[in-house]
Amino acid sequence: MIEKIDIKLNINGRDYAVQVEARKTLVDVIRDECGLTGTHIGCEHGVCGACTVILDDAEGKRIRTVEGLADGDQLHPVQSAFIEHHALQCGFCTPGFLMLTVNALETNPNLSDDDILDLLSSNLCRCTGYQNIVKAVRSTVAEMRRSPAR
Amino acid sequence: MAGNAKSDGGGGWVGRSIRRLEDPTLVAGRGRFAGDLPAARWVRFVRSPVAAGRIVRINAPEGALVLTAADLAAVKPIRPMLHKFNYVPISQPVLAREVVRFVGEPVAAVISPSREEAEDIADRVEVEIEPSPAVVGTDAALARGAALVHPEAAGNVAVEGRLQTPGFDSTVARAHERIRLSIRSHRQNALPIEPRAAHAAWDDVSERITLTCATQMPHALRTIVADLIAMPESDLRVIAPDVGGGFGQKMSLAPEFVVVTWLARKLRSSVAWVEDRRENLVASFHSRDQSISLEGAFDADAKLIGLSADIVADVGAYSCYPTTCGVEPLMAMAELPGPYDVREYACVSRGVLTNTCPMAPYRGVSRPVITLAIERLMDEAAAVFGLDPIEIRRRNLVKAFPHTSVTGLVYDEASYVETMEAAVNAVDLPAFRARQAKARAEGRYLGLGVATFCERTGYGTQAFAARGMEVTPGWETVEMSMDPSGYIEARIGASPHGQGLRTTLSQIIADELATSPERIKIVHGDTDRTPYGWGTFASRSLVIAGGASLLAARKIRAKLTKMASVMLEASADDIVLEADTARVAGTDRSIPIVTLARAAYHQTHRFKGEVAPGIAESATYDPLGTFSNACHLVVVEVDAETGCVGIEKFLVAEDAGRLINPMIVDGQIQGGVAQGIANALFEEIIYDETGNILTASLADYLPPTAREVPAIEIHHLATLTQASVTKAKGLGEGGAIGAPAAVLSAINDALSPFGVSIDELPATPQRIRAALRTAGARSKSCGPNTAGFGPE
């Protein structure tokens, strides 16, 4: 039996105290110990990006996952844009793309088309051919330029 | 989130790009995938590290629960069957028994309370295998004296189709030109982002097992798993929850699923297995590993009058269930002539066993490869005759419908020539040729390529029966009911996993029943809740499940009409349904459909026995099939120094009949094209000569990212066929079918000044540079500014 360590995480504003093996990856803990299965595992070697989450504060272990994007019934603009532009088919890679995009837009709301391609090329999608994901992100960027409220 | 507001008062849901009903839960992270379920036990498979050999011993660590083939002696082997084409039945034990036949073949199953612990134990399981010579590649497998992958398959040939039309010899003897070429498509993996996963849970109360898994065909899976582990099929419930892409890979039976289900029964517990990416690349199913040599005989007018082909498909170490390993070679033989009208044909097509991962259907099955072959032939012939590549296709495409192909396939109404012209008219070809010439003068190599093809879709039992399949899929049944509150439920045997079928079927039903998609629930992927059906593959679900949905909805419409005629005291002929209301045409007398629904259950006495209680109908649809068609047109720039290919333009003109939801249609095309571009330029499963797989991670196997897939311009034509009750044709595979041929055609056009051509996919920078070296061109590494990419 491998020794477990106690850690505290704050995910989407909620605290979780879990006992985990030190070798566990963050996504394993989020899924298996915290029961948040919206974050998916696609490759386990850091290529496909399906497991992307937002690390707001590594020290305080504040994390955001796809479950925390919407505000009640109000979807995040990126979520709405993905629906509007048919940027998902099977939906398995989608949480990773959403978190990737949300974090990037929070860091730099003025992404150029080339920045967007650079950004999105860090994750893999097998269904959409990416074009509609690119459109969804472009439209969100344009929307945020018009009304930078959120 | 705003709903899908209607833009007009009429029905008209069909043909509109409404948002998908599937999406709100998926974007919120509330999708449920098989790997999300907690389990009491986890399985890790120990896999063979060698391609061929005899198992000497398997030593498990003290105290660990590790099962081998001996423990599963009662489990029958997988033995897919074909009754034609010299098919050799091949047995696959769910865990290797005595011998191993490919790297990655499961040899033992470790069971532990946690996935991590199961992995730890698996690492400590000692597997001693006495290696034997591995048969890798079809040349080695077909060589005289080659070792046999299965002793029962002489010469390693598992299936062989042969045909020759009576007039073939005399026709090709009088040909004006005979043009030969060979093409090679290397091995790919369908690579759904969700790996395979299965969770089997024993229920102590009902003594039933629920198998929740990533599958494209839950009903057929239930039948075969129950067969293999000898349990009453009714005690097994298979659920396909949200499934994270399949592309064919999740259609074929995974031996691992059988083991997991058997374990749940044995241990009376819940047991789960989730494949990791390495397992997916090594031991899930592969595809596309084919070589085709063909000869086209042309008359003086460049009309193709005879076609012959030798098709060799590497099928790997076992035969996939249910299609068998005949699926690739036999489809290639039947459909090689494609959209061209050729009357004489000779073909030999073999499925060859090797010590590699088994082959199974992947989006398009053989058609990306045969389209590549026949389109290369057209391009070559155009060059020989000094014709424009478009002109030679114009002369040879089928123009009159229905058309019975030389292999007996009936092509329904379509627009092969018109679709190609639409693609060509969307670009300024003379301007491109001028630009190409100017660029060449500057040492830049642009090329334009086209691929025209037809895509057999929505085919029923007759088509599958022609292959002699023991398991003959084809039909779909839809059970539809309207509850007393007027909501509609349609239970389908198809099993969508990203295709948006809940949305499109709702659109079809909504129009027929004068309501809106929000009032319709499509239930799928649960054998306890849905009628037996074949699942989702082969571009069939919208055509067949959609057709059955329309037929069932018509029955419900007829019943509602009859009820309205009684309640409104009017002739049924005068009743119209519109906007959730039944109305006497031309009057203001009407009744809400919801009132009819309630009456069908609570006020049945009013119908005086003329109408049976309740509203529940069922319909089955088993069509012959319908061919959609398309032309892909691609402009590339090839860097002659680096061999890198940049795609400047990608255009698709497509005729898939009536489009139920154009947004979803375009999404299918875009996704398919991306996979086709991957086939053309990037993805390749590589084995070394001993059968070790060299591409076992996503650092070595290279699916394209958003950087590599260009914008795709899509044009639609719409031939309203009689072969589909909804007039919709399937199109799920077309993007992947046309793109490889079109990209290669463009590359070869670009390379034409060098007098070389590429006949092998993927056309990696290495292969292009190698071809250019033979032409004496210089070659050096990719620079940072090139559009293409590739491993060096």
Largest interface in this structure:
A-B, 58 and 58 residues
Return the CATH class of the largest domain in chain B. Alpha Beta
Number of domains of chain B: 3
CATH topology of the largest domain in chain A: DNA polymerase, domain 1
CATH class of the largest domain in chain A: Mainly Alpha
CATH topology of the largest domain in chain B: Aldehyde Oxidoreductase, domain 4
Instruction: Identify low-pLDDT runs of chain A.
Output: none
Q: Give the CA-based shape of chain A.
A: globular
- Major sheet characteristics of chain A: 4 strands, mixed
Describe the structure.
The complex is a heterodimer of chains A (150) and B (792). Chain A is an alpha+beta fold and 150 residues long. Chain A is built from 5 helices and 4 strands. In chain A, 36% of the residues lie in helices and 15% in strands. Chain B has 792 residues and is an alpha+beta fold. In chain B, the strands form 8 sheets. In chain B, strands 3-5-1-13-10-11-12 form a 7-stranded mixed sheet, with helices on both faces. A 6-stranded mixed sheet of chain B has the order 7-17-16-15-8-31. Chain B has a 4-stranded mixed sheet with strand order 20-28-29-30, with helices on both faces. The model of chain B is unreliable at 6-10 and 778-792 (pLDDT under 50).
